[in-house]
Amino acid sequence: MAYLSCEFVENGMCFIYDAAVLCSYSMCMKFEAIKIIEDYKGEIFDWDKIRQIKQEYRDRFAKNDIPPICQGCPSLKVKDWSGDMQLKYILINHWENCPLDCIYCHTHERKKELNKMKPWKILPVLKDALKNNMLSYEGNVNITGGEPTVLKEFPDLMKFFLEKTNIFIMTNTAAFDYSKWIRKAIELKRSAPTISLDAGTRETYKKIKNADCFNKVIKNIKRYQKGLDPIRNSLIGLKFIFIPGYNDT
How far, in Å, CA of 70 to CA of 91, rounded? Predict the structure, then answer.
């Protein structure tokens, strides 16, 4: 049946530090989100309940009863949705810990407080989803939040996705630390990391990131790139956020 909806309404879920939500786009743009489960800290789901909640939203969209928070979202499109309930689009964003302190980041004003927060474990939830046929073998996961490479579960998460699924892995990293798992995923053409650089010089980097590790980051980027063919090398992206008076010349 063709109707206006999006991938996350149909087959997605996002994890934030205190909830499981329908998508992340509305949260980023409007600072609110449609919460599937509130006060969530990594408990194993009753998947029948999750299916029921998601189906209620799918039925709303099929009737063109679009929630106000979703109206105008560029992710909405009209197509024939499969009706499959498996999770194919996942965003892991349940922690804010990061060794850097970027002046544009939403965590900048609360950096010390947020860095003390201990993230709950998400891998058991994903394993249970796979066991209960709720996690698709194909799809896309975005591991973001704070700095992924400082998350204790990160190596196990990467291993799980690479060995148990064919899911494509997106990571948002500052390359503050080098990850052999990111490199392995690139080699397998299973990942496209986005590296937050934001500067072309050490001095500018220090002003924006509040950390003196520009040379270390450049070294790690080169380690990710070393020996790759053009196709695999093209999977590595650099992100620049232009800030007036800092890096906009």
Answer: 17
Helix axes 123-131, 154-164, angle to 10 degrees: 20
- Residues 74 and 95 both lie in one domain: no
Q: Which amino acid is at 196?
A: S
Dmax (CA) of the chain: 55
Domain that holds residue 77: 1-84
183, pLDDT greater than 80: yes
Q: Provide mean pLDDT across the span 179-185.
A: 97
| 28: pLDDT strictly greater than 70 | no
> Measuring CA to CA, how many Å separate 31 from each of 60, 72, 216?
22, 15, 34
SS3 of 109, please?
A: helix
Do 104 and 214 belong together in one domain?
yes
Residues 91, 44 share a domain: no
CB atoms within 10 A of CB 127: 15
190 and 143 in a common domain? yes
Does the structure show a pLDDT above 60 at 30?
A: no
